[in-house]
Amino acid sequence: MFNDKSILITGATGSFGKQYIRTILDNYSPKKIIIYSRDELKQFDMATHEFSKSKYNMLRYFIGDVRDRERLTMAMYGVDYVIHAAAMKHVPASEYNPMECIKTNIHGAENVIQAALANNVDKVIALSTDKAASPINLYGATKLASDKLFVAANNMRGRNRTKFSVVRYGNVVGSRGSVVPFFQKLIHDNAKSLPITDSRMTRFWITLQEGVDFVLKNFDRMQGGEIFVPKIPSINIVDLATAMAPDLKQEIIGIRPGEKIHEIMCPVDDSHLTLEFDDHFVIRPTIVFSDHDCKFSPNKIGETGTPVDYDFEYSSGNNKDFLTVEQIVQLNKTIVVE
Questions:
Q1: In Å, what is the CA distance from 89 to each residue of 29, 43, 67, 83, 130?
Q2: Of these four, 168, 206, 306, 310, which has the most CB atoms within 10 Å of its CB?
Q3: 290, pLDDT greater than 80
Q4: Distance between CA 227 and CA 294 in Å, rounded?
Q5: CATH number of the domain to which 117 belongs
Q6: What single string gives the DSSP state of each residue in 34-76?
Q7: Which of 315, 192, 172 is nearest to 249 (CA)?
Q8: Positive/negative CA dihedral, 122, 223, 283, 20
Q9: Which residues, in sequence order, are bridge partners of residue 266?
Q10: Count of Cβ atoms closer than 10 Å to residue 251 Cβ
Q11: In 118-237, which ranges are E strands?
């Protein structure tokens, strides 16, 4: 699918973008991959260290911000596929700097959509988060708004071929700013305890490679307008701390601004729109598209989904699949912290 195609990734200097690039180049022969981000130092490090070999000669580096529509439109010229990974993601920082979060996560989403339409891009997938489902913090609220924008964009394309879909998943193990590298640093620095916000807290848990593979698969599956949600395990934060430092004291410090006890990926209020497939869920659009009547099952590769129960909710707290302490220990051994 990606052979001889041009791909642009916003926020490509992050954990997801770098792993996505590695995976694409290990499995396909794209024409070019455009790294679009605003951090010149991270781009320099990628170009001179991580991706300096000749097999990476199709990488193109664009300094730019998703807040800049004109720059985005220029960068997307001739592009076939877009992955929108750029976002302001830190929950407390978003609470204290709300306008900056809105400018990046909402206005930035608008700009990606307009640039893709202006260039007649084939397919766009926007990365979302479990915090966008029934949000209680600004980060989640802006990502919900972003999700709505990308779904509704399918009604804006006119005669364009462009299709937009969303991928929503949970915490990526080992990604920058996440809890695993935070705990690792504390352990390395000989901390006397690990901070636990609440002993009841659970989170969805997905590896970086699993997230990348899920996005890749959904480029084949997508019809435009879906929100794709993977079936993934949950962890309890106490079990994570125990797995990483079984002999270290755990100190309850209280929930941070904007945090939840449990995360949700398929809200009960969307149960009438949700289809269950073998390894994922699809949340169908709440709106009707003017140019096609799509039932979203079967999908583009023939997979068939069935409606969930009317009161169904997919939460990290009610998940049927929880990792044990030993499973977390084994999983952590495979993780490379970005």
A1: 31, 20, 15, 16, 12
A2: 168
A3: no
A4: 14
A5: 3.40.50.720
A6: EEEES-HHHHHHIIIIIT-SGGGTTEEEEE--TT-HHHHHHHT
A7: 192
A8: negative
A9: 314
A10: 12
A11: 123-127, 163-167, 171-172, 193-196, 202-206, 227-230, 234-236
Radius of gyration, alpha carbons of the chain: 20
3-class DSSP state of 286: coil
Model pLDDT, residue 335: 73
Nearest to 84 by CA among 72, 70, 94, 97: 72
* Upper half-sphere CA count for residue 279 (Cβ side, 13 Å): 8
**Domain tally for the chain?**
1
Q: Could you give the angle at which helices 237-244 and 179-188 cross, rounded to 10 degrees? A: 40
Higher pLDDT, 337 or 223: 223
Q: What are the φ/ψ torsions at residue 7 (nearest 5 degrees)? A: -125, 135
- Any bridge partners for residue 81, and if so which? 7, 123
Residue in the block written with tokens 């698969």: 217
Axis crossing angle, helix 325-332 with helix 237-244, rounded to the nearest 10: 60
Domain annotation covers residue 330: no
Q: What are the tens digits of pLDDT across the range 88-132?
A: 998 889 999 999 999 999 999 999 999 999 999 999 999 999 999
Which residue type is seen at 23? T
Range of the domain at 48: 6-170+206-231+265-315
- Residues assigned a catalytic role: 131
Residue 7 in contact with residue 83, Cβ under 8 Å? yes
Confidence of residue 338 (pLDDT cuts 50, 70, 90): low
Assigned token pair, 31? 């024409």
Instruction: Evaluate whether residue 218 is within a structural domain.
Output: yes
